[in-house]
Structures are given as structure tokens and as C-alpha cells.
Design goal:
Bound molecules: protoporphyrin IX containing FE
Distance between the termini: 22 Å
Radius of gyration: 17 Å
Number of helices: 4
Order of helices and strands: HHHH
Shape: elongated
Number of strands: 0
Strand content: under 5%
Oligomer: single chain
Largest sheet: none
Length: 149
């Protein structure tokens, strides 16, 4: 394997670990604790420390993933040739990451700004949607070279 592809994959897996790990900690660790304690600031504080890192991870996923998909699809043109499985996986991943970026901004600007101690549960659906999409992005990634999807 060439040096470019090796570096891209290492960065891509690092970004995936940060994003998926960060979301799972929020969904399975912070959210239940905040609900139990009726304490919205637990979620706000956690998101505050994760926001920049999460955004960097998403940007890294977008850039490294785009380049890796180009390598798999044999260039830019191949990315939109849907007879090619890599192109289909690429489009799904592109749609899901753009959705993630949009939802993450809405989560920060809308969901969290209206979150109070008496409505902590209203953050649940957004947190779980973002977490499940992150896992879907991982599963789709397993389709390129491992043929799992
Ligand atoms: C948060 C977003 C993302 C996550 C969590 C994620 C996760 C992963 C994971 C875990 C793999 C490893 C598969 C393996 O080891 O076989 C992978 C591979 C891959 N991903 Fe992503 N990915 C994300 C975004 C993207 C985006 C936006 C694209 C392109 C538009 C993309 C394109 C690829 C490609 C081409 C591979 C194949 C790499 C290889 O096996 O050589 N990914 N992804």
C-alpha cells in the first residue's frame, strides 16, 4: 500500500474514533446522568469540551474520506459512476456526513440553547440520531475494502 493511502487511512480511523467515541460517551454516559440528575449543564458542559474536537474530526473525515473514495473509485469521474459499488458507498457517506454536520450545528445552536433542567429529555432524540448516524458511517466504511456492505 502506498504512503498516501496509509496516512489517509490512519487519519480516517483516528477521526472516526474521536467522533464515534465522543457521541457514544454523550449518549450512553452523559445523557443518562443528566436525565437522572435533571441537570442540563452536564450535557452543555460536555458538548462545550467536545465541540471543536468533534468539528475537527468531522472535517478530517470529510477530507480523508473524499480522497480515499477517489482512490477506490479510480478518480473523480468514478465517484459518480453508480455501476461502481464504491461510488454508491461514497454518496451514502457524503449525504450522511453533510447531514451530521448540519444536525451538529442545530444541536449546538437550537437544542442546547433551549435546554433547561426540566426538559433534559428533549436532547435525547438529537443525541441518538447523531450517534446512530456515526455508526452507520462506520459500517458503510467497511464496504470499500472488506465487502461487509
Ligand atoms: C464521521 C464520519 C465517518 C466515519 C465515522 C467513518 C468511518 C470509517 C471507518 C471506521 C472506516 C474503516 C473501514 C475499514 O477499516 O475497512 C472507513 C473507511 C472509509 N471511509 Fe469513512 N467514515 C466517515 C466519513 C467518511 C466520508 C465523508 C467519506 C467519503 C465521502 C468516507 C469514505 C471512506 C472510504 C473511501 C473508506 C475506505 C478506506 C479503506 O478501507 O481503505 N468516510 N470509514
Amino acid at each position: 500500500m502506498g504512503i498516501e493511502k496509509s496516512v489517509l487511512i490512519i487519519l480516517h480511523i483516528l477521526g472516526a474514533s474521536i467522533w464515534i467515541g465522543g457521541m457514544l460517551i454523550m449518549a450512553l454516559g452523559v445523557l443518562p446522568k443528566a436525565k437522572k440528575a435533571n441537570n442540563a449543564s452536564l450535557i452543555k458542559d460536555y458538548e462545550g469540551s467536545f465541540h471543536i474536537l468533534g468539528m475537527i474530526a468531522l472535517t478530517m473525515q470529510f477530507l480523508t474520506g473524499f480522497r480515499l473514495a477517489m482512490i477506490y473509485a479510480g478518480g473523480m469521474k468514478g465517484l459518480f459512476d453508480f455501476s461502481n459499488h464504491a461510488a454508491v458507498l461514497f454518496i451514502w457517506k457524503l449525504v450522511l456526513i453533510l447531514l451530521t454536520m448540519g444536525l451538529f450545528v442545530v444541536f449546538k445552536k437550537k437544542t442546547l440553547s433551549t435546554l433547561e433542567n426540566n426538559n433534559v429529555s428533549s436532547a435525547s432524540s438529537m443525541i441518538w440520531i447523531l450517534t446512530l448516524i456515526s455508526i452507520a458511517l462506520m459500517v458503510l466504511g467497511l464496504g470499500f475494502s472488506r465487502g461487509i456492505v
